[in-house]
What does this fold into?
Amino acid sequence: EAALGGPGPRPTALVCDDDLLAVGAYKGLRRLGLRVPDDVSVTGLDDLALATAVDPELTTVRLDAELFGERGMRALLAVLEGRAPEGGDIPVELVVRGSTAPPNAS
It folds into this structure.
């Protein structure tokens, strides 16, 4: 809230590292009288069921949490055993919903 309500230009978007923080951002924005996405766009990460329970529904990044955990555990075990962890991408999907829009010109 301090960053959004302080002096100077206001951010046009908040990129939150999970959906729970994004929902908290909604609450903070509303306390400041700001609207999602009209004044500030908000995105999350996880695609929890919560993402469709808020208004407007949250734009988020869906990732396979089980695969993410599995890869993390394999990497940890490799490091503990003195080996280099395996590389590789984890597929993600951007799920566009109502919490994002182009910034206002004002």
The two ends are 20 Å apart (CA to CA). Residues 16 and 77 are 29 Å apart (CA to CA).
